[in-house]
């Protein structure tokens, strides 16, 4: 009976995830492009040729570096801000916590396209709010006239600064609500006992709260890495679609290979498989390390 109950969900997951993944793997070993889609040319197998093209392409290594640096910066920042907000919500009254969490979840629920367009407007060099406020700051805080009509999309660092803000704004509410749900499961007596023993707020969190919430943090970390490593929508809109190749991450590079003329679906599929393997290695390694430490049963 349990297997019959999960069968519809398993079929849906298979159709939406497993079958496209199988097709992606098959295409990655083929010379597959627009002629093969239209039937104008037969499909030919190239073995690992597409993978060799990907791994020998300097653009791939540049995009991989940007993706890694972006994930290294954004994932810890998202977890930190989300955890702090979750701790704050746990200390607020019921009505205020409901108001703050609802407001935060509205940001999380906003479509990525809408959020990205809003931030593009905010950082627009022609009348954007960000440049205006930075001009008004005193020089000892880094402000001044140099921010007048400053373009945030002409180089990877300023562009990914805006992308970081977009992703952080949308991602921290999920972390905050998850941490809040975990905090509600911790008996208040544990925190009270720690404070009676003379532990400060930081020691209470590190010695009591964090060990009990470690499985939750593990899941949040893995989800954040998966979501942020190959991020596409926010990066595509903020960087101006495909305007500057120096700002390509793995998500934009795969899109460029697949949908610019002439499309190379085989090469894009190989790139997608490489991205999948990287994420699987990261996930498996972190889960294994935490199982050894006893964080995951």
**Proportion of residues in extended strands:** under 5%
Q: According to CATH, what is the topology?
A: MetI-like fold
Distance between the amino and carboxyl termini: 26 Å
Number of strands: 2
CATH class wording = Mainly Alpha
Radius of gyration equals: 23 Å
- The number of helical elements comes to 13
Q: Spans with pLDDT under 50 lasting ≥5 residues?
A: none
The assigned CATH architecture is Orthogonal Bundle
Mean pLDDT: 86
Overall shape: it is globular
Please describe the biggest sheet, giving its number of strands, its sense, and whether it closes into a barrel: 2 strands, antiparallel
* Side-by-side strand order of the widest sheet: 1-2
Fraction in helix: over 70%
Helix vs. strand class: mainly alpha
Look at the structure and name the CATH superfamily: MetI-like
What count of domains describes the coordinates? 1
Q: What is the string of helix and strand elements?
A: HEHEHHHHHHHHHHH
């Amino acid at each position: 009976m349990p297997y019959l109950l999960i069968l519809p969900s398993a079929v849906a997951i298979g159709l939406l995830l497993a079958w496209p993944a199988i097709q992606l793997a098959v295409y990655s070993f083929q010379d597959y492009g627009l002629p093969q889609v239209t039937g104008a040319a037969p499909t030919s197998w190239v073995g690992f040729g597409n993978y060799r093209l990907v791994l020998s392409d300097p653009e791939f290594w540049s995009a991989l570096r940007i993706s890694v640096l972006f994930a290294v910066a954004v994932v810890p920042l998202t977890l930190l801000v989300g955890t702090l907000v979750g701790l704050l919500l746990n200390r607020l009254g019921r009505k205020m916590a409901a108001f703050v969490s609802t407001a935060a979840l509205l940001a999380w629920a906003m479509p990525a396209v809408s959020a990205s367009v809003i931030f593009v407007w905010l950082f627009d060099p022609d009348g954007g709010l960000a440049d205006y406020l930075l001009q008004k700051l005193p020089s000892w805080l880094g402000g001044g006239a140099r921010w007048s009509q400053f373009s945030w999309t002409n180089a990877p660092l300023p562009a990914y600064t805006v992308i970081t803000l977009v992703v952080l704004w949308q991602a921290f509410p999920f972390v905050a609500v998850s941490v809040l749900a975990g905090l509600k499961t911790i008996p208040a007596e544990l925190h009270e006992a720690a404070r009676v023993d003379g532990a400060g707020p930081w020691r209470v969190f590190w010695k009591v709260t964090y060990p009990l919430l470690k499985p939750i943090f593990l899941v949040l970390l893995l989800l954040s890495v998966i979501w942020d490593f190959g991020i596409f929508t926010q990066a595509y809109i903020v960087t101006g679609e495909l305007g500057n190749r120096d700002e390509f991450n793995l998500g934009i590079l795969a899109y460029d290979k697949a949908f610019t003329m002439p499309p190379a679906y085989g090469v894009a599929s190989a790139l997608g498989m490489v991205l999948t393997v990287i994420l699987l290695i990261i996930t498996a390694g972190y889960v294994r390390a935490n199982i050894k430490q006893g964080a995951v049963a």
